[in-house]
Amino acid sequence: MEKDEKIINVEVEDILEDPEKENLKESEEIVKEKPQEKNETMLGVLAHILGYFFSFLGPLVIYLVADKNDEATKSHAREAINFNASILLWYVISGIFWLVLVGFLMTGLLFIFQTIAVIMAVVAAKDGKEYKYPLTIRFLK
Predict the structure, then answer these.
(1) Among 12, 39, 76, 120, which is most buried by a count of CB atoms within 10 Å?
(2) CA 40 to CA 67: how far, in whole Å?
(3) CA-CA-CA-CA dihedral for 31, 131, 138, 134, to nearest 10
(4) Cα torsion for 108, 111, 117, 122, to the nearest 10°?
(5) How far is it, in rounded angstroms, from Cα 72 to Cα 80?
(6) How far apart are the first and last CA of the chain?
(7) Are 111 and 120 in contact, with CB atoms under 8 Å apart?
(8) In the predicted model, what is the mean pLDDT of the chain?
(9) SS3 per-residue string spanning 13-81
(10) How much helix, strand and coil, in percent to the nearest 5, is found in the chain?
């Protein structure tokens, strides 16, 4: 069942007795559900943003702090850890290529790629969707 879908069991007699009562119950349920969804979404977004600034250490903190039942946040944090560890490896390789005078181009392209990929991941996390970074070695599964 998707997050946007909700099954509500309503008996006809309850609605006929007091229709306002049912609307009140429904609005209370929505208010209770939204903070949890928003919290999961924000932690997923935060994992990607922290990864951009603090490499794999930022998402690692989110991964360790996230609730055991919060699979969405753990998935985003895991993906951000894998991507940032891979990017770190690609930067080391581009540093080696600086000796051959090609590394400056590779480093610039990596920076642009990293920025675009993180923006795409943040937008996907904000929308509650999964995102798989390209060119990523999956250290954590």
Answers:
(1) 76
(2) 9
(3) -160
(4) -150
(5) 12
(6) 24
(7) no
(8) 81
(9) HHHHHCHHHHHHHHHHHHHHHHHHHHHHHHHHHHHHHHHHHHCCHHHHHHHHHCCCCCHHHHHHHHHHH
(10) 75, 0, 25
* Residue range 48-102, pLDDT digits in tens: 999 999 999 999 999 999 888 889 999 999 999 999 999 999 999 999 999 888 8
Residue 3 has which token pair? 């997050």
Give the Cα separation of 80 and 106 in Å (integer). Answer: 21
Residue pair 128/72 in contact by the 8 Å Cβ criterion: yes
Contact (CB, 8 A) for 7 and 88: no
**pLDDT top residue among 41 and 138:** 138
| pTM for the structure as a whole | 0.71
> What angle is formed at CA 90 by the lines to CA 89 and CA 92, rounded to 5 degrees?
65
